[in-house]
Predict the structure.
Amino acid sequence: MAKGLTSYQNDFSGWYNDIVQKADLADYSPVRGCMVIKPYGYELWEAVKNGLDRRFKETGHVNAYFPLFIPMSFFEKEAKHVEGFAPHLAVVTIGGGKELEEPLVVRPTSETIIGHMYAQWIKSYRDLPILINQWANVVRWELRTRLFLRTMEFLWQEGHTAHATYEEAQEETLRMLDVYTDFAVNDAAIPVFRGRKTKSETFAGAIASYTIEAMMGDKRALQAGTSHNLGQNFANAFDIKYLDQENQLQHCWTTSWGVSTRMVGAIVMVHGDAKGLRLPPVVAPIQVVIIPIFGKGAEETDVLEKSHQLFQELKMLGIRCHLDDRTEVTPGFKFNDWEMRGVPLRIEIGQNEIKAAQFTIIRRDMSADTGRGSILREDAGSQVKDILRQIQQSLFDQAKAFRDSNVHEPTDYEEFKKSVQGGWAFAWWCGKESCELEIKNETKATSRSIPLDDELDEKSKSEKGKATCVRCGELGTEKVYFANAY
């Protein structure tokens, strides 16, 4: 199977498209720009969903659902919002064979309709805060699409909260950024940079946007999750008000935040290799695959019996495992099949393993040579759990080492241009949008994030007030990650 893959080194984009289809994650829909998520890919999305949903509920959020169709007039109430989304809207003008009195927008995001509902629900400071999330599909009319990364219809979660003060809204915005970071690092094994977006990259209608940015296997950036402080923009547009403790009418402060199915694409591109997927055990639909190496007659029965015993033992321990007892394909085919699907740990059981009272294991996070080992039959379950923890950490460590080795700190513009051709540049910027635009036009690199103060290293802190913009030479006000991005 791996032999049929496009080269990981020479054509990363082609490799990615091959992996998504060959590993049975998704396929192209007959509707241009849309995708069909296959069961294995949907299980991976469910692992993302479950990991995030648990964290949302632990931080006091509850789930609800809002309509797919939004009146066009709602978008026109917030000028920056409609301006930012206008090119991507899908609009329904006919329903039931008749022209609609007012066109309906197919949900690209839900700030407007949720703002409308919050205005009905919020009357007093006692109603605040409102902490609601919804799991939904959205539609954005994209010209260039790629499975999971950018499709016209995709799945996501969008959180929408309302607060009494700016400080509470800002605390919520950063809290959810931390939730996303925690998921990316501890579940998806993806190292990310937490930071703030520049003004030109801020979400339409927000006063500040924050992001987690990840480096893919081809060194391009992917915005993996965003959290926005919407200020009072939507509260003003939709008249979301509350009576405070002094019985004075005040506008609320709102936030929104979201992660989509592009997180699945991130997992593929951060961890995959020339043989296929490499899935972190925490999110892998199948954590362990057991492959019986059949002999003949009684030997085959014995091998299958021992394989079933191990399968049941692992299952009882809560390990997601699969017993591949197919007889119509060779063991070699099975090995390649499960390597392509990225199962973290493979266990082989044959007559030799039974005689030695131990099982052969192959770790997907390592090469075929270094990843091969064995575990004792006795207490195999606890050994497997330990190995899965090691694999989870190993994949994170590999991704972080790769990322860190490809982030450069150029001292001049020529060096900057070379840096973004083969990685990321972490460089000082003057804060002018014109300079940011020139960088984009000349190098195709965009600003990814401005690190939060607690993420700045000592070297960068010491340069504040002294360093100059890498593009124009004026005083640098912010140190920014720049990269070519998806």
The two ends are 27 Å apart (CA to CA). Residues 288-388 form a domain with the Rossmann fold fold (CATH 3.40.50.800).
